[in-house]
Amino acid sequence: MKFTDGFWLMRDGVRASYATDVRDVREGEGRFTAYAAVHRVRERGDTLNTPLVTVECFSPADGVIGVRATHHAGKAAHGPDFRLYETEGAGILKREGTVIELASGPLTVRLDTSKPWGLQFLDADDKLLTAVERRGTGFATAPDGSHHMIGQLALGVGEYIYGLGERFTPYVKNGQNVDIWQADGGTSSEQAYKNIPFHLSSRGYGVFVNHPGKVSYEIGSESVGQVQFSVEDQSIEYYVIAGPTPKDVLRRYTALTGRPALPPAWSFGLWLTTSFCTPYDEETVTAFVDGMAERDIPLGVFHFDCFWMREYQWTDFRWDPEVFPDPEGMLRRLRERGLKVSVWINPYIAQKSALFAGAAAEGYLVRRPNGDIWQWDLWQPGMALVDFTNPAAREWYAGLLRNLLDQGVDCFKTDFGERVPTDVLWHDGSDPERMHNYYAQLYNSTVFELLEKERGPGQAVVFARSATAGGQQFPVHWGGDCFASLGAMAESLRGGLSLSLSGFGFWSHDIGGFEGTPDPAVFKRWLAFGLLSSHSRLHGNVSYRVPWAFGDEAVDVARKFTRLKHRLMPYLYGVAVEAHRTGVPVMRPMFLEFPDDPACRTLDRQYMLGPDLLVAPVLTAEGDVEFYVPEGTWTHLLTGESVTGPAWRHETHGFDSLPLYVRPGALLPLGADDQRADGDWLQDLTLLVAPDTEDGTEITVPDLEGRPAAVFRAERDGAGVRVTAEGSARAFTVRTVADWADPGGNPSPGGGDKDMQAVHHRRNDPGT
C-alpha cells in the first residue's frame, strides 16, 4: 500500500507518524526494547499528546534478528499465528556508550541512541547489509480510518529482491507492488495461489514478515531506495535473516518456519491425470494406462480429477456409482499394474452433498456473524467451507479421507483453498483477515498428517495449489491454472523460481498447460521441461494430455525424458534429501548456485536441477534458445558437447532435446533402471565424471527412505580420476559425461571408459 504522494507529501486523507527520536532503551536477556517518539523532543511539553512507538529487538534463532514495532499494544490477539521453531539464548546483547548491539550468529543489529531513530543490520565482517532509515518505522491511518503499521529496509544500489511466494510477474521484484493475499487468479496476473511474506536479497540476507494476513509490499515502487511492507494492524513484526550465501538464508528461514518433508521416491515418477472436464470411466482409465504401457512410457501415478465424484456434490468423497460401480476393484487392478493412485479433493461441501446437513448440524462449516452458514454458488451450488479451526471438523474430514485410503487411494490433490471469505466467524475465534491466507496451512496439514499417519513417515505426498509461510512442510505444490502456450510455460517457470526462493523445496506444473489444448509443439517443449522438474504431471482442462494425442513424436519425447528422469533418480533423490534436511530446493534459480556471478542474478528462463544440472527449457516452437553458462567447462548430458563459460549461448534444439549441461567438477550418479522412479539405484550404477572434477569430490546415493546407501568419492590419479565407494560393495561403472552421451542426443548404452577406474570396496564400514 502506498501512503506518500511523492517524496514530501502524503496521499489525500493519509496521516502518518514515523519513529524519529530515541527516548529510552530497556535492556533484557538477549534483547532490548527502544521507545521512539514520532517528533523531535526539545522540551517536556513535546512529550504530551503525541504517540510513542515501541520497538523490540530480539533473536528467535541463530542468525535471525526480530524487530517488533507497536503503536497501541492493547489490541486483542485472535490469531492465527505462524508456528515458528525458535531456539533459546540465540541473542547476545552489548552496549558501549550510546551504541547498543544485539548479535545473533553472523548477524548484528545496531542502534545509536544519540542519533535520529534508525537500525543497522551488519554481517559477520561488520559490513552493512540493510538499515532502517528515515520513515523506516511508523504507522499511518488511511481515509477509511484503517490503521497500518509500516516497516522499511534500505535497498542498496544494484540490490535485487526475490521471492514473496509463487509469483508469475517478473522474477526480480524490484519496482513491483505485491499484496500477500491468496487468490485464484491463474498464472497470468499479479495474483498468486502461494503468498509468502518472505523475500531474499542478492546481498545475502532475507526478511520474513511474521504476519499471516495481508502484507502489502512496495519494493522500490514508492520510495525507490526502500523495500516497504505494511499491515493493517497495531503491530508489525519482521525477522532479518543472515546468510552470507542465499543458501544459508534459506537454511535459516526453513529452520525457523519448517523444513519440507521428504516425498516418497515413487512420487518423482510421471503422473497422468484424467484432466478436469473430460469424460472418463474405468474403461477410459484402462485405455490410458494400456496406451502408456504399449508405447513404453513408464507411468508412476494415475490421478482422478474432479468428476470421480458426482456432479453438484463436491465434495462428498464418494465415487460416482454410475461411472465407477466397482471402485475398490478398479483401484486394486491399478495397484496390480504397479501404479499409485491420487484423487482430487477440495475443502468445500456443496449443498447437495450428503455430508452437508450433518456437517452443518455438528458445526463443521464456517458461519457468518449472524449464525448462518456461509454459502455461495461459485464453483458448487450452495457451497460451504469446512472450518479447519475446529478440531472435530478436522478429524471428521480426515476420517472421510481415511475411507478412501482404505479403498486403495494413495494420495490426494488438495485443490483450492484460496477464496476464503473474511465476513465470517471461525470456531476458534480467529481473525478472519489473518485466516484468509492461513486457511491453506490448516487444509494441507490436515490431509498431509493423515497420509503420514496412515501410510507411514516418508510415504505422504499431496499435490497442493495454495500455501502460506510454513506450507513447504507439506509437499508437493503445483503451479496452478496456466494456459496451454509457450508464454504460460515461461510464466510457470517464473512462479516456480520465485517459490523456490521462498523456502519451498518441491514444485510441479501442468505439462502442456491447463487451459485449452496445446499445439503439439507447445506440448513437446513442455514435456522436456516438466520431466526435468521436481515432480512431473500431465494434466489439462478440456482435453486429455496423453502423449499420443499430440503425435508420434510427442510419444517419443515423453518416453525419452521419462526414462531419463528415472535414470537420474539416484541424483535427484539425493537432492530431495538435501531439500528435506536444509531447505535448499531441488529446482534452483541460477542465482542460488552462483550468487557471485552478476549475470546469474536476473536469469529467469533457466535453472539448476540440483547443484550439477543446468536446464534451459526451450520456449520457442522452432527450438531457438538463449541461455547463460557460468565459468568452467560444461558438458551436455545428451550430446557430450562441451562449452566453456562464462558465456551466453544461442542454440537450436529439436523436440527431443534442450540445453541440459553437467556442471564442471560434478560426479553424477545414474541408475540403470529407466522404468520406475523407486528402483534399486545401486544396481549397475554409473557415475559420470565431468571435466575439472577435483580430488575429494563426493556424492551420496540414498536409499528409498533417504538414508545414505553409498558414498562415492573422486580422487585424482595422474591424468585420470579414481572413484571409490563407502557403504556398498556392489559393482559400479565410471565414465566421462562425454563418453556416456551420444552425439545424436541419446544416452549411450555402452562404450569404453576414458581415463577412469572403478574401485569396488568389499567393506561397508565408513572411512574405508
TrEMBL record:
<comment type="similarity">
    <text>Belongs to the glycosyl hydrolase 31 family.</text>
</comment>
<keyword id="KW-0326">Glycosidase</keyword>
<feature type="domain" description="Glycosyl hydrolase family 31 C-terminal">
    <location>
        <begin position="583"/>
        <end position="667"/>
    </location>
</feature>
<feature type="compositionally biased region" description="Basic residues">
    <location>
        <begin position="759"/>
        <end position="768"/>
    </location>
</feature>
<dbReference type="InterPro" id="IPR025887">
    <property type="entry name" value="Glyco_hydro_31_N_dom"/>
</dbReference>
<dbReference type="InterPro" id="IPR048395">
    <property type="entry name" value="Glyco_hydro_31_C"/>
</dbReference>
<protein>
    <submittedName>
        <fullName>Alpha-xylosidase</fullName>
        <ecNumber>3.2.1.177</ecNumber>
    </submittedName>
</protein>
<dbReference type="Pfam" id="PF13802">
    <property type="entry name" value="Gal_mutarotas_2"/>
</dbReference>
<feature type="domain" description="Glycoside hydrolase family 31 N-terminal">
    <location>
        <begin position="55"/>
        <end position="217"/>
    </location>
</feature>
<keyword id="KW-0378">Hydrolase</keyword>
<dbReference type="GO" id="GO:0061634">
    <property type="term" value="F:alpha-D-xyloside xylohydrolase"/>
</dbReference>
<dbReference type="InterPro" id="IPR011013">
    <property type="entry name" value="Gal_mutarotase_sf_dom"/>
</dbReference>
<feature type="domain" description="Glycoside hydrolase family 31 TIM barrel">
    <location>
        <begin position="260"/>
        <end position="573"/>
    </location>
</feature>
<dbReference type="InterPro" id="IPR017853">
    <property type="entry name" value="GH"/>
</dbReference>
<dbReference type="InterPro" id="IPR050985">
    <property type="entry name" value="Alpha-glycosidase_related"/>
</dbReference>
<feature type="region of interest" description="Disordered">
    <location>
        <begin position="738"/>
        <end position="768"/>
    </location>
</feature>
<dbReference type="Pfam" id="PF01055">
    <property type="entry name" value="Glyco_hydro_31_2nd"/>
</dbReference>
<dbReference type="InterPro" id="IPR013780">
    <property type="entry name" value="Glyco_hydro_b"/>
</dbReference>
<dbReference type="Pfam" id="PF21365">
    <property type="entry name" value="Glyco_hydro_31_3rd"/>
</dbReference>
<dbReference type="InterPro" id="IPR000322">
    <property type="entry name" value="Glyco_hydro_31_TIM"/>
</dbReference>
